[in-house]
Structures are given as C-alpha cells and as structure tokens.
Specification:
CATH class: Alpha Beta
Number of helices: 7
Mean pLDDT: 94
Radius of gyration: 19 Å
Strand content: 5-15%
CATH architecture: 3-Layer(aba) Sandwich
Helix content: 25-40%
CATH superfamily: Creatininase
Number of strands: 4
Order of helices and strands: HEHEHEHEHHH
Distance between the termini: 54 Å
Largest sheet: 4 strands, parallel
CATH topology: Rossmann fold
Strand order of the largest sheet: 2-1-3-4
Low-confidence stretches: 1-6
Shape: globular
Length: 267
C-alpha cells in the first residue's frame, strides 16, 4: 500500500481553508523566499536560488523550538530580476518594476489577511533593490507592519566564518558557497564533473560597485571555485544561517516585534 504523506502544517501551499483559518492569527510570522531561474553553469540547476533557501527555511522550521506554531512559509517566487544574466540560455527575468509590484502585492495580501510580521529570505542578488523599494513603500503606507530580509546569505556566511571557504571567500555565482549549499540539500542536482576550472573575475576592490553583465565576468555561466565545494561546507552554511534566522525570530518574539524607540523593556 502506498504511503500517504501528511501535509506540513507550515506550508501554505499544502494547507486547506480550515487549517489556514486556524493558523493565521495576529502572532503569525510569514516567511517568503525569493529566488531566480537562470544558468548556474553546467553543474548546478537553474532553480538553485530558490531551491536552497526553501530547504534552509524548512530546516529552520524543523529546529526552532519556540513559537513554531506562529510560522507559515509562503510558496517561493521562482523568478527574479536576472537581466544581467540574459546572455545565457533560458534566463527567466522579470523587469525590476514587475518584481517590485509582485513583492508589494504579496506584502499587501499578507497585511490584508492580518499578517504584519514578514521575513524575506532572498536567494538572488538581482532581487535586493526591488525588495528594498517594495518594503519601504509598504512600510510607508502601513507603518505597523514589520518587514525584515536576509538579503545575501552567500556573503553573510563568509563573514560569519572566515575559515569556511578556500577561494574568493566562497563567492561566485554557482561558486564554492552556492555549490556547497546545494550539495547539502539536493546533491542529486549537482554534477561537479561538469566543472572545468575556477573562474575568478578580475575586479577592483568592493569599495566601489561595478554594475556588470555576467558575460563580462565569465563564459561558463558560473564564477568562483565550485570544485572546492563540499557537503560538509554546505552543512556548516545551513547551520550558520539557521542560527541567524532563529536568533532573529527569537529576539523579535521576545521584544514583541518592537524595535527602536518603540521597543518595550522585557523583564
């Protein structure tokens, strides 16, 4: 007899109307993953930018001990602003204005349904500016909504553990960090044999940002050193990010989601 899997009690896409009605309260915290669909080289899947963060959030839900019932995970947005990758085959890119509108509409839908605590987990660099613009617009219109975002996990993990990566601080599109993360959550979708060499673009320091097209950095569809990736590094990445997210949620819950001059003293 085929085993019937029970629906997860935190995935909105698997919940029915009764479950949602019982789940949504003024304490609900919605988590939204934003990704992209684009070339990550010959060794990584096109959906890496939403596959990994979705798996990361699922692990957060598994491990968080307090306030678990307050959390709900929205379906991921699998497309992003990827125009800088559009010289590579099958780049699925949204216009920045479209992405801003999508994020605004999702935020407004949440607020309309009484959810005013929102955490965005972003998996793609092109989404960072649209997230900020949309968040500031909604925040200006609805001041009691709280919007937080983990903008660039691939940078954060290198800052948190400076000994974790071996090349270029783990950076790169489909590089050491991203490939390690995917190896930890979906090793079946990674084929390191298809990587020929590391690709470290010749760029000035990061004090002044260049707005490059990806074809100016690489001909392979990836940058960085994916051959240095490993499942073990990916597991460390997950542990770092999981702790960051859980610590943030715990802090915000303890402060009743207040901050700045409105923050109440918790005895």
């Amino acid at each position: 007899m085929e085993k019937v899997l029970a629906p997860n009690n935190y995935l909105l896409e698997e919940m029915n109307a009764i479950q949602v009605k019982n789940k949504i309260t003024d304490k609900t915290i919605a988590i939204l993953v934003l990704g992209a669909c684009e070339n990550h080289g010959n060794h990584m899947p096109f959906g890496s930018d939403f596959i990994f963060p979705m798996k990361l959030v699922e692990k957060v839900f598994e491990d968080i001990s307090e306030n678990k019932n307050n959390l709900i995970l929205l379906p991921a947005v699998p497309y992003g602003v990827s125009s800088h990758h559009n010289n590579f085959q099958m780049t699925m890119s949204l216009e920045p204005s479209t992405m801003i509108s999508i994020i605004e509409d999702i935020f407004f839908s949440l607020v309309k349904n009484g959810v005013k605590k929102i955490i965005v987990i972003n998996g793609h660099d092109g989404n960072i500016s649209p997230i900020e613009i949309a968040s500031r617009k909604i925040k200006n219109d609805i001041q009691d909504v709280v919007i937080a975002c983990l903008e660039s996990w691939w940078i954060l993990v290198g800052q948190k553990d400076k000994d974790l990566f071996e090349v270029w601080n783990g950076l790169g599109h489909g590089g050491e960090a991203e490939t390690s993360g995917m190896l930890a959550v979906r090793p079946d979708l990674v084929n390191i044999k298809n990587v020929s060499e590391q690709v470290i673009p010749n760029l000035p320091n990061d004090e002044i940002r260049l707005y490059w097209k990806f074809r100016e950095l690489t001909n392979t569809g990836y940058t960085g050193a994916p051959k240095m990736a490993s499942i073990e590094k990916g597991q460390k990445i997950i542990e770092i990010l999981k702790n960051v997210i859980i610590s943030f949620i715990t802090y915000m819950e303890n402060s009743e989601w207040k901050y700045g001059i409105s923050q109440t003293k918790i005895e």
